[in-house]
Amino acid sequence: MTEAPFVQALALGLDPAWRRRPEAERCADARAFEQALQVPGVTTHCYSMIGLHPGADLLLWRLSPSLEQLEEAAAATLRSGIGPWMRVSESLLGLIQPSQYVKRPTVQEQSLFTGERSRYLIVYPFTKTSDWYLLGKEARQGIMNEHMRVGHDYPQVRQLLAYSFGIDDQDYLVAYETDDLAVFGQLVRALRSTESRRSTLRDFPILTGIHRSPSEIARLLGA
Q1: What is the C-alpha separation between 22 and 215, in angstroms, rounded?
Q2: How far is it, in rounded angstroms, from Cα 99 to Cα 191?
Q3: Which band of pLDDT confidence, cut at 50, 70 and 90, is reported for residue 50?
Q4: Tens digit of pLDDT for each residue in 90-113?
Q5: Is this prediction's pTM over 0.85?
Q6: How many angstroms separate the CA atoms of 12 and 49, rounded?
Q7: Which of 9, 100, 172, 205 could disulfide-pair with 92, CB 3.0 to 4.6 Å?
Q8: H helices, E strands: number in the chain
Q9: In CATH terms, is domain 6-95+209-221 a member of 3.30.70.1030?
Q10: Which among 91, 82, 88 is positioned nearest to 17, based on CA atoms?
Q11: Which fold has domain 111-208?
């Protein structure tokens, strides 16, 4: 079994009919759901997406040593409390592995599961063109060096690139963490004008979540 940890961005959408249930039932559902989020061996951070993305109200950002544990965590989430009233809107999987382009990772390029959580998490699938993979190693390294130099101009933004080859539709799962969405927007705009943009095939849907505790999210949902 691989030692590389698995990462998942799981977006869940709530059936509007749940909000019409009696208050006591909604509160009991919220308590059961919050308990179900705590799965041994799986790190889970919660983000609210209420009204921010069609069909998604909750974003679970998870880290686990195995795909089986992610499966069990998702099953526990979907069968408990509010869970049966939710559907999977998006699911992105990846493996955290050393980058072939980064020799000495900075704090910006470390796992987003350490240290304090920033206010916002942005995740999306990312796939490169076939032409990119047919380029020579030196050409790819040169293009990525420019890409990384731009990223280092925005130290307020942390990032994670997880590998999805063979385990999901995309090539990579890309995630950013920041307290300043305006600065993040400037970073994305700056990256649009780098050479690496020519090799982008797909980089959507973009999922943006606000870091909140499960109890805060339950309150916003109507518990």
Answers
A1: 18
A2: 19
A3: very high
A4: 999 999 998 888 877 776 666 577
A5: yes
A6: 9
A7: 9
A8: 6, 9
A9: yes
A10: 82
A11: Alpha-Beta Plaits (3.30.70)
